[in-house]
Design goal:
This protein is mostly helical and about 140 residues long. The protein has one domain: Cytochrome Bc1 Complex, Chain D, domain 2 (Orthogonal Bundle), CATH 1.10.760. The protein is built from five helices and no strands. α3 packs across α5. The structure holds heme C (HEC). Heme C (HEC) binds next to α2 and α3. The site of heme C has 28 residues, from α2 and α3.
């Protein structure tokens, strides 16, 4: 019995370092799923991978309408907006409230739920490394 307990304790010690990264991965995964649900249809998170919308890799801190190789609307190019967190939050809720005449909305209708917007922005931060493609 004592021996069995010792084996159990030993296993717990062995598994702890494996369990922690899995829990962290789970949290990241949830953010990515939220992004996929709302944005992936038109946006990639891969660098320079422009689809119907521009790649969102490195978007946090980027000036609007500046990614090379994507045909932005004049509204976005001339907006003078920089994508910081508060601006992204407003944009995800209602793009036209930030830049009217943009080509994302319609058809994109906006996310009214602040908690969901927060997760999407947290995800955008994970794909915006400081040494990435920011064009600030
Ligand atoms: C129906 C397609 C579609 C969906 C869904 C969509 N977008 Fe877009 N997005 C676009 C298009 C098209 C543009 C380019 C707009 C323009 O040039 O006026 C754009 C532009 C952007 C930009 C400006 C990027 C830059 O380089 O200036 C951001 C930021 C953005 N989208 C974030 C999001 C986020 C976050 C989501 C999910 C919550 C999302 N979009 C969902 C189509 C979409």
């Amino acid at each position: 019995m004592i021996r069995r307990l010792a084996v159990c304790a030993g296993l717990a010690v062995l598994l702890a370092p494996i369990a922690a990264p899995i829990a962290a991965w789970g949290a990241d995964d949830e953010l990515e799923i939220t992004f996929n649900d709302h944005c992936r249809e038109c946006h990639s998170f891969l660098k320079d991978d422009n689809r119907l919308g521009p790649s969102l890799y490195g978007v946090v801190g980027r000036k609007a309408g500046t990614l090379p190789g994507y045909a932005y609307s004049e509204s976005l190019k001339d907006s003078g907006v920089t994508w910081d967190e508060p601006t992204l939050d407003k944009w995800i809720a209602d793009p036209n409230a930030v830049i009217s005449g943009n080509q994302m909305s319609p058809p994109y209708g906006g996310v009214a739920d602040a908690a969901i917007r927060k997760k999407i922005i947290a995800y955008l931060k994970t794909i915006s490394p400081p040494d990435g493609t920011k064009s600030k």
